[in-house]
Amino acid sequence: MKNQQKFIKQLFVALYNVLSNPELVSLFSKFNYNEKRLREGMSDLDTLKSLTQLRDKAAEEARAATARLNQAKTTLLALFNIHLETARLAYKREAEQVDHLKICGRRKKRYD
Q: Residue 107: its pLDDT value, please?
């Protein structure tokens, strides 16, 4: 990401320097880069900058949403474990209920 931002900044400086110097514009026109084409490149660079900012913002929002999801999952798991221990204590002597609720022994764990 930082390399891309650095590259965009270098492109901007290069295009700005060429466009601000008429001698460079005439030199670049020999290679089929006239002023119109250089200005198109500058506008495309502005579009690239805005799209990069949108992508970075979306990535940051996704990271924040993932952090909220993980926090909610941790909170829910802690609450579930409290309820599980309470149920185990409440039905300690009732084997049929323990078997029906499947609260005896270790829980199956997903590996994801």
A: 67
**DSSP SS3 for 30:** coil
Q: In this structure, are residues 9 and 45 in contact, taking their beta carbons and an 8 Å threshold?
A: no
The pair of three-digit structure tokens given for residue 31, joined into one six-digit string: 């290679």
Per-residue pLDDT tens over the stretch 8-56: 899 999 999 999 999 999 988 889 889 899 999 999 999 999 999 999 9
Burial class for 52, CB neighbours closer than 10 Å (0-12, 13-18, 19+): middle
Q: CB neighbours (10 Å) of residue 12?
A: 16
Rg (alpha carbons) of the chain, rounded to whole number = 31
